[in-house]
Amino acid sequence: MSALRCLSVAVTLVGVPLASSCVLPDELSQMQKDMADVQQQLRRVAQSQTGMEQQLAALATREQDDPDAVSREELADMHLRVEQFSREMSVTAERMNDIEQRLDGYSQELQRSRDRPTPGTVEDRPTVTIIPGQPESRPPSTAQTIPDPEALYNTAYADFSKGNYALAVSGFQEYQERFPQSALADNALYWIAECHFSQGEYGTAIDALDDLLGRYPDSDKSPAANLKKALAFQEQNQIRQAIIQYRYVVREFPSTDEGRLARDKLTGLGESAN
User: Fold this and answer.
1) pLDDT surpassing 80 at residue 163
2) d(Cα 185, Cα 176) in Å, to the nearest integer?
3) Which residue has the higher pLDDT, 270 or 4?
4) Long-range contacts: 154-158, Cβ < 8 Å, 24+?
5) Long-range contacts: 225-230, Cβ < 8 Å, 24+?
6) Above 60 in pLDDT, residue 8?
7) Contacts of 50 (CB under 8 A, 6+ apart)
8) What would the pLDDT profile of 99-145 be if each residue is shown by its tens digit?
């Protein structure tokens, strides 16, 4: 998703009415804050994109005039900027996806609340059986002991966004263990890996990514997870393993942003994609 398209989606989502009757005030406040943060991040990404395009054009012009005018240091710096831009795009797109799913969840909850019988109606009253000479029987308790999955995931993601990685890992682990069949179970494992990667725990991040790919081989996070593995190998100076992993990403996900970034990383390492 391009930065401009993401920005357009964000602006559109701001106008979507939230199910305020189903959303607690602190949840609504967090949603508004997350939306504002994403819009600001999208503007920064769009500015970065413009700056890179201008720098690339300038480098291309200089190289055309004099093939030796562009140094290897300038090219390496450009590769780093492209990599950083791709990471920012990946994180921003993920946050946009999370916000859209939360909005969908609020909308569905609003619809369910409309479909529920009004408290106090005949349909809403539990059946109580009274037997002469016996104590009045009571319906079983309906207290919920399982946490709300959406709230659990959103809390963990908020901790990740704030850099509270230990809390985020704990929250995402609980979410995946309690709701392994949910649509975001694979995302939870991915963000656990991101937490470890962000702290420089590259080996642990690789283990978490392998866990994700083993449990959910068809996950839509597979391209990002495989690329992140390659980056973690490179951070550990396991260059040969990183090259093998980059080539796998190029081969398996050639038309994705991850595939293109993997190809660029191979070029920066002086290696081919084959």
Assistant:
1) yes
2) 5
3) 270
4) 154/27, 154/30, 154/98, 154/102, 156/188, 156/191, 157/98, 157/191, 158/30, 158/34
5) 225/190, 225/193, 226/252, 226/253, 226/258, 227/258, 227/261, 227/262, 228/193, 228/194, 228/197, 230/262, 230/265
6) no
7) none
8) 666 666 655 555 555 455 544 444 444 444 445 555 444 454 444 46
**pLDDT (tens digit, 9 = 90+) per residue, 198-208?**
999 999 999 99
Nearest to 180, CA basis, from 159, 149, 147, 148: 149
Distance of CA 74 to the CA centre of its chain: 31
**Assigned token pair, 249:** 């990403």
* Coil vs helix vs strand at 70: coil
Domain boundaries, the chain: 1-117
Q: Evaluate whether 1 touches 38 at the Cβ level (below 8 Å).
A: no
Contact 216, 232 (CB under 8 A): no
> Alpha-carbon dihedral of residues 68, 71, 75, 78, nearest 10 degrees?
-120
Distance of CA 38 to the CA centre of its chain: 12
Per-residue pLDDT at 107: 53
pLDDT for the residue 231? 96
